[in-house]
Design brief:
single chain, D-Maltodextrin-Binding Protein, domain 2, 2 domains, five-stranded mixed beta sheet, four-stranded mixed beta sheet, Bact_solute-bd_prot1, signal, ABC-type glycerol-3-phosphate transport system, substrate-binding protein, SBP
Length: 487
């Protein structure tokens, strides 16, 4: 996301400023309004619109158990959130805790947005044992021995790359929803039948900005890697043959009229699917709760694996260590209250967890998901995601080169035109050009930035190089295991 975008109109700026004042709830002297003497007000921000009621219930229950702490949990639309949160930090009005997964630990620390989870920076063993071994790593959620983050969503089932089929549309088209398309050709054949026999669109595929990731991740993950960087070759890969071929297939679908027309965002496309106006939608683990909030229950659709190229699956979705999503703000004056809430929130048997699963919001990293998940759609997602080779552990440069924890080269390379890949895709989809052509500039820019910065850091004494980012022995369909790292 571009956190430094300029040229915002005065009207938008004023609206965001008003939102900040309303959200921050400060008293005339600038202190947090606690609403009652010694009561501390803990402000948490995110952009999960479908979880508003859940968060309200969570806040009420936490306050019941901790009367001296009042939680104000606010959700802002995602597009506004990506602008509002940086503005809040710039104006020294940031919340006490916030949700953020657009960048990782290194950039958050560089921006001075975060502080350790606990007041003194250390966390007890009875906290970290809630997670699988290896969940807390220097450079991922720890820095200089202090813990800054914790894995929230688990990384086997959670993520994009699932195909949702609308039962009513499939029935109208004379298709068997329990025999879903398995290959690219199957998908085109199903679309042809939906287009000829129903009034519905075949695929509700948002193509507006980053929302294009829905269909992109639903296809590319079966071809190579769902990252814009290939850890096998050590190169930004948008213009590589596998990526170009996959995007070419999306262009084929569009040309044939199998993608819903218009440049739509994810919300429009989701509603289109839920209104039986489209037969197929590609997205992630979070969708059962999104559709439930729209009154579209899981008995009205089926979850299927993503489709593979006709020649068979040659790639997999990646599993990483980047599921640290809730952070404590560097501007908080309520570090003790934040730490109390985090421990309560991550209690595997606590209220937050029980209600999270009751509402089918997804899968958590500190919980036995096989035991807790009851929603049939989520159960199917777990069955699909847990199949061997559907998601694989990505190589981690940090585990190969510990000094990567101090490097800013990759973060800075990704910060160059953050939405560049999606802009290249949008241009190619509109113009009909090859992705190899529209994506060339962003790939060249990122690769040069990464290599040049690594050379500077190495000259300054860090043990880093392009070798840290290159794993030639990795196969896209297999986990890169700990024994494969060279010491």
């Amino acid at each position: 996301m571009n956190l430094h975008r300029r040229g915002t109109t005065a009207m938008i700026t004023m609206a965001l400023a008003s939102l900040l004042v309303a959200a921050c709830g400060t008293s005339p002297d600038g202190s947090r309004s606690g609403g009652g003497g010694s009561q501390t007000t803990l402000q948490i921000w995110d952009f999960s619109a479908e979880q508003v009621k859940f968060h309200k219930d969570v806040a009420a229950q936490f306050n019941k158990e901790h009367p001296n702490i009042k939680v104000e949990w606010r959700s802002i639309t995602q597009a506004d959130y990506m602008k509002t949160l940086p503005l809040a930090f710039q104006s020294n009005q940031a919340p006490d805790m916030f949700y953020w997964n657009a960048t990782g630990l290194a950039q958050l620390m560089d921006q001075k947005w975060i502080r350790p989870l606990s007041p003194d920076g250390t966390v007890p063993a009875d906290f970290t044992k809630r997670w699988p071994d290896g969940s807390f790593l220097e450079g991922i959620n720890m820095q200089d021995g202090k813990t800054y983050g914790f894995p929230f969503s688990e990384n086997l089932y959670w993520g994009s790359g699932y195909m949702f089929l609308n039962k009513e549309v499939f029935q109208q088209a004379g298709l068997d929803v329990n025999n879903p398309p398995k290959t690219w050709t199957d998908l085109k054949n199903a679309c042809a039948q939906i287009k000829s026999k129903t009034k519905a669109e075949c695929i509700a595929a948002p193509t507006k900005g980053v929302d294009m990731q829905r269909i992109w991740f639903g296809l590319i993950s079966s071809v190579s890697t769902d990252e814009f960087f290939d850890f096998k070759t050590g190169k930004f890969d948008l213009t590589e043959p596998s990526q170009v071929k996959t995007f070419g297939f999306i262009q084929e679908l569009k040309k044939a009229g199998y993608l819903a027309p218009g440049t739509n965002d994810k919300n429009f496309s989701r509603q289109q699917f839920a209104a039986n106006q489209a037969g197929i939608f590609f997205d992630g683990t979070w969708m059962p709760s999104v559709w439930a909030s729209q009154g579209f229950s899981s008995d009205k659709y089926v979850v299927a694996p993503r489709v593979d190229p006709d020649e068979g699956r040659t790639g997999a979705a990646g599993r990483g260590y980047d599921d640290n999503k809730y952070w404590v703000s560097s501007q908080t004056k309520n570090a003790d209250a934040a730490w109390t809430f985090i421990q309560w929130m991550t209690d595997p048997d606590g209220y937050f967890v029980q209600q999270y699963y009751k509402n089918a919001f997804g899968t958590l990293s500190y919980v036995d998901n096989q035991k807790m998940v009851s929603d049939p759609a989520l159960k199917q997602i777990m069955k699909i995601g847990g199949a061997p080779g559907y998601r694989v552990q990505l190589p981690v440069p940090l585990l190969k080169c510990p000094d990567i924890a101090k490097s800013k080269a990759y973060v800075n390379a990704m910060a160059r035109n953050p939405e560049g890949e999606w802009e290249a895709m949008s241009e190619a989809l509109v113009s009909g050009q090859s992705l190899a052509t529209t994506g060339a500039a962003i790939v060249k820019q990122r690769q040069a930035a990464l290599e040049e910065e690594l050379k500077k850091e190495a000259a300054a004494g860090l043990k880093v190089s392009m070798d840290c980012y290159t794993f030639p022995d990795w196969e896209y369909t297999k986990d890169y295991t700990s024994d494969m790292y060279k010491g």
